[in-house]
Amino acid sequence: MTKRKIYINEKACEKCKNKDKCTTSKTCHRVIRGEYQDIYDEVDKIIMENKDLYKRRQMIVEHPFGTIKRALGFTYFLTRGNESVKAESYMHFFTYN
After folding, report:
1. Do residues 60 and 82 share a domain?
2. Which domain holds residue 18?
3. Who's near 88: CB < 8 A, 6+ residues apart?
4. pTM of this prediction?
5. Ramachandran angles phi, psi of 49, nearest 5°
6. For 4-56, what is each residue's pLDDT tens digit?
């Protein structure tokens, strides 16, 4: 089960002129953050700081995956189980190379 943090500030919501745009609740707006949200925020920050690097990665590294999926027609795995799927993906990349 995922742990969540719930932030509620009723005093701020009472005085807020944009409350009707923010929430339909009669009391106040609740902000719910997942257990790993801090990590997600940090990753987003790193990506935003290195946009050029990530664009280059998309062009170089992710291209083979799209080619294997679309051009070679491997859109899903035919086998089940970690070891079997791993072997099948090795065969896809072997064929691509």
Report:
1. yes
2. 1-49
3. 77, 78, 79
4. 0.49
5. -75, -20
6. 888 888 888 888 888 888 888 888 888 888 889 999 999 999 999 999 998 89
HSE at residue 58, side-chain half, CA atoms within 13 A, is: 7
Q: Phi and psi at residue 32, in whole multiples of 5°?
A: -115, 125
90 and 69 inside one domain: yes
Q: Specify whether 96 is located in the same domain as 55.
A: yes
Q: Do both 82 and 67 map to the same domain?
A: yes
Structural domain count of the chain: 2
Q: What is the DSSP string of 7-52?
A: EE-HHHHHH-TTHHHH---SS--EEEEETTHHHHHHHHHHHHHTHH
Shared domain for 1 and 11, answered yes or no, is yes
Tokens for 4, please give them: 């969540």
DSSP one-letter string for 66-85: HIIIIIS---S-SS-SHHHH
Residues 70 and 37 in one domain: no
Residue 1: predicted pLDDT: 61
3-state secondary structure of 90: helix
